[in-house]
Specification:
Blueprint lengths: L1 E5 L3 E7 L2 E8 L1 H9 L4 E9 L4 H4 L7 E2 L3 E4 L5 E7 L6 E7 L19 E4 L4 H10 L5 E5 L2 H6 L1 H8 L4 E5 H8 L4 H9 L5 E5 L5 E5 L3 E4 L13 H14 L6 H18 L13 H15 L8
Parallel strand pairs: 1-4, 1-9, 2-7, 4-5, 4-6, 9-10, 10-11, 11-12
Antiparallel strand pairs: 2-3, 7-8, 12-13, 13-14
Helix pairs in contact: 1-8, 3-5, 6-7, 8-9, 9-10
The structure holds adenosine monophosphate (AMP).
Adenosine monophosphate (AMP) binds next to strand 2, helix 1 and helix 8.
Length: about 300
Amino acid sequence: MSILVVGSVAFDALQTPFGKIDRCLGGSATYFSVAASYFTEVELVAVVGEDFTDEDARIFEGRKINLDSLQRVAGAKTFFWSGEYGYDLNVAKTRDTQLNVFADFKPQLNDRQRHPDVLFLANIDPDLQYEVLQQTERPRLVALDTMNYWISSKRDSLERIFGAVDLIIINEAEVRQFTKEANLVKACRQILDLGAQTLVVKRGEYGVLMITKDAIFAAPAYPLENVFDPTGAGDTFAGGVLGYLASRAEVHDRELRRAIIFGSVLASFTVEKFSLDRLREISLRDIHERYQDFRALTHFDDFGAD
Ligand code: AMP
């Protein structure tokens, strides 16, 4: 069982109320791959520039991440994103987006990559997401993420890809921005009407809401005392969700619920430090311990059980 992911590998400049960093490793596919590789093999399709060094690529080393399709373009610069957070860490303010190598990126899957078990279209241009989907033989599960940048600049393209996937993972603010509907449940139903079976709404420190045609599931975020930098939480969450699902034989409601908790566990590690500094140092054991903490956090008996 393996996942093919296409998305950004980036350099980020970040400012949070707790610190500032001018250049660190980031990108939707970077966080996703490292998170998912705790559960399954990952095939990474992305592009970087000449400024992306072997030292930067170390993040993928020693993990089940295949880099054959991580293109390096000579004479060009890696995708760059600069973001800032105030005390409400749920809201990222984009200061600058420089597409650089992504402006001309045309992902070409090789024969092996055309038959992935699970496909994750991480946050990149929705037209590129669609092109990659078109190149695959319909995988068992196709999921995607996006962000406000693409909702405002490529709405029609997003609508097309929303209708072509099984699972959409998206922020609460983006659900409202896309639908212009204030009520979250109604807004989710509007997106599901485009064709996907499952919508997973990331609500930052308030957790996650999953909506399908027949069911709703809500999970809290892990109540951390020290949230340092929320960048990458969403992509890490998606990596945990899809990584876990790729490692299971079937995708049904119970597995989706477990997957959401694994995703939340992994995201809770990412936000403890800048960039992938925390995510890269954890073990499977840390992940399973925090999964058990989640069980305790959300467990309650039937009223009148004792
Ligand atoms: P998140 O998980 O939503 O916090 O995503 C953070 C990552 O998304 C950062 O490391 C950025 O490099 C990357 N990113 C930001 N804007 C874009 C964009 N327009 N397209 C692709 N990746 C982006």
